[in-house]
Design brief:
Structural class: alpha/beta
Shape: globular
Largest sheet: 7 strands, mixed
Strand content: 15-25%
Helix content: 40-55%
Number of strands: 22
Strand order of the largest sheet: 13-15-16-11-10-18-19
Radius of gyration: 30 Å
Number of helices: 19
Length: 594
């Protein structure tokens, strides 16, 4: 017992010291970002504000990206649609800056992250308001999808990022015992990202954080539907880079249309794309010209599975949040609901009751549960999916209500809708809706619901609810998808140590987690002598050129000595190896044949 007391005292002292150190706030400087031109101070009245009226139908791309608030159609301004030559110049500037940044220490990189984290925490309302104005989402949805996820990623990188980018030593195997083997992670150069509009803040920060922390530069093309907010968020990044003495041009945010994106793919060392499967295929085709690595995070049609042994009231609240996150503009959103027939009536009744209390309206104009649809004419697509389901026998069980909307605001809003009696012949159960619609289908057995969940071109995620956790895990393990949550929804993405991505038409490759961080790196395998310079590689005489007649016999015995199935075979082969090595030099095989 006397032996353990000193160890216990030391461990207790260490724990107390760690706790006291936690009480000392880190020395993190503050940054100032000019937001005077993006704040809506209420000075614009209906009479002096510019209401933007986009034309119907697909328009030819112009040299300007027009920006407006989806919820109010208030005009926000425009940004240039960059030409291929302009894109190449941005990448060239980032490449030059990256060569300097690649020499930075992990301490400097962590300080960059801490400065960002401090600014985000202190300016949550500003960041969320800008996201809300540009995409139509509510402030709560912006906080959940923009702020929390980004803060989680930053804190994970601060805590574990260096650990996973340091050289990793591996086993050398039987034939290389005199060597040491390791994997090194070097920056790729410039990481390109083409991101969607649904989370304008997080979709910029997500690839940027991994790229910069791993020593890369980053050039990010934001969506033409969320360019106004993206260009402001760049100011935050540039201010933080300046605060740690990093090159100003290390990170770029660019604006434009398809031509801009194609030029970016052609210029960078890796491309990360978040968007639709159709555009994803074009990205792959373009990337094949330069053979750069590609990560595709495409559409989702996640299955939300509810077994009969759950607390219905509890699951209903999660179901609504999963379906309506970001004003129905969800990423990895629940779009197919499968409820066991034993609780189907109860589940539908409860969720309809809650849906009727959900109000839709301009998110910054009042207390609304849901905001506007960001993309022009997307409400028409959603209504077409609903109409197709109704024509094939489905029914609308309940809908939310509109708030105080102007006469011209109909196209930007869509009421949250519950559809029952659905089946897989309906487009609503096969095509990605990306909207506030909950189609609910019955199932009778675990085997049936697994088959239904896998009957999809998509494979991003799933959520399974059951009072028996083992049962839920077993169901989820059989669903062919990249992420799964047990008795929860989207919790996998909040664990930033985990990789995120899907299969099938949901894409391939991973971002987030160790896998996503290392995907921004050149992964290099290195082998060195373990006892250099005392033991070096020497080619055994039986396989030196010109190869003697017993060269193959030596190799055959060496293979068996190393990998033989039992110790006696290996020992016998080893004796033969030593015997051949001790023999005087034999004539080359070619001489013997002559």
């Amino acid at each position: 017992m006397a032996f353990w007391w000193p160890l216990i005292v030391l461990a207790l002292a260490y724990a107390i010291c760690r706790f006291l150190l936690m009480l000392i706030p880190p020395n993190v400087p503050s940054i100032e970002v000019d937001a005077s031109d993006v704040l809506d101070d209420g000075s614009q009245t209906k009479e002096n504000s510019y209401i933007y009226i986009p034309r119907k139908g697909k328009l030819a791309q112009s040299d300007k990206v027009q920006c407006y608030e989806p919820a109010t159609m208030k005009y926000l301004g425009y940004f240039p649609a960059l030409t291929p030559d302009e894109v190449k110049e941005h990448v060239a500037q980032a490449r030059k800056a990256q060569k300097e940044w690649a020499k930075s220490t992990f301490r400097q990189r962590r300080q960059f992250l801490r400065i960002l984290l401090k600014y985000i925490i202190e300016h949550q309302e500003l960041i969320c308001e800008i996201s809300s104005r540009d995409t139509g989402k509510t402030m709560v949805d912006a906080s959940l999808g923009e702020i929390m996820t980004t803060c989680e990623k930053i804190t994970w990188l601060i805590s574990e990022g260096e650990k996973w980018l340091k050289p990793e030593y591996r086993s050398t195997g039987k034939s290389m015992l005199h060597k040491r083997a390791r994997v090194e992670f070097h920056p790729l150069g410039v990481i390109g990202a083409i991101v969607s509009w649904n989370y304008p803040f997080h979709n910029i920060f997500n690839p940027m954080l991994a790229a910069v922390f791993s020593g890369n530069g980053a050039v990010i093309k934001v969506s033409e539907h969320a360019s106004w907010s993206g260009c402001f968020y760049l100011r935050i990044i540039q201010a933080a880079l300046a605060a740690v003495g990093a090159p100003y041009n290390l990170v770029h945010v660019i604006t434009g249309f398809a031509e801009t994106g194609q030029a970016l793919v052609s210029s960078v060392d890796k491309i990360i794309f978040v968007g639709s499967p159709g555009v994803g295929r074009m990205i792959m085709e373009k990337a094949s010209e330069t053979l750069i690595p590609v990560t595709l995070e495409l559409g989702g049609k996640d299955a939300f599975i509810v077994c009969e042994d759950v607390d219905v009231n509890h699951v209903v609240q999660i179901a609504i949040r999963g379906a309506l996150q970001s004003s129905g503009q969800n990423c990895a959103g629940a779009e197919r609901f499968y409820v066991h027939r034993d609780i189907y009536p109860t589940f539908v009744t409860q969720i309809v009751k809650l849906f009727k209390s959900i109000s839709v309206g301009p998110p910054l104009a009042g207390r609304y549960d849901m905001g506007a649809i960001c993309m022009q004419e997307h409400a028409d697509k959603l209504q077409n999916l609903v109409n197709d389901a109704l024509e094939k026998g489905a029914e609308i069980a309940g809908r939310g209500s509109f708030g105080n909307l102007g006469e011209d605001a109909v196209d930007q809003f869509f009421p949250p809708t519950i559809i029952v009696n659905v089946n897989h012949t309906m487009k609503l159960m096969q095509e990605e809706a990306f909207g506030p619609i909950i189609p609910i289908m019955k199932f009778s057995s675990d085997e049936e619901v697994v088959e239904l969940a896998n009957d999809s071109n998509y494979g991003l995620g799933c959520a399974v609810f059951s009072g028996n956790q083992k049962r839920a895990i077993n169901i989820a393990s059989q669903v062919h998808c990249g992420v799964a949550a047990i008795n929860d929804f989207a919790s996998t993405y909040m664990c930033q140590s985990l990789p995120f991505g899907g299969v099938k038409h949901s894409g391939f490759g991973r971002f987030a987690g160790v896998e996503g961080l290392r995907a921004c790196c050149l992964v290099k395998s290195v082998v060195v002598d373990r006892w250099w310079p005392y033991i070096k590689t020497v080619i055994p005489k039986p396989i030196q050129y010109p190869v003697p007649e017993n060269g193959f016999e030596f190799q055959e015995s060496l293979v068996e000595a190393l990998y033989g199935m039992n110790v006696w075979d290996r020992l016998r082969a080893l004796i033969n190896v030593l015997k051949i090595l001790s023999e005087p030099n034999s004539a080359p095989a070619s001489s013997k044949r002559r």
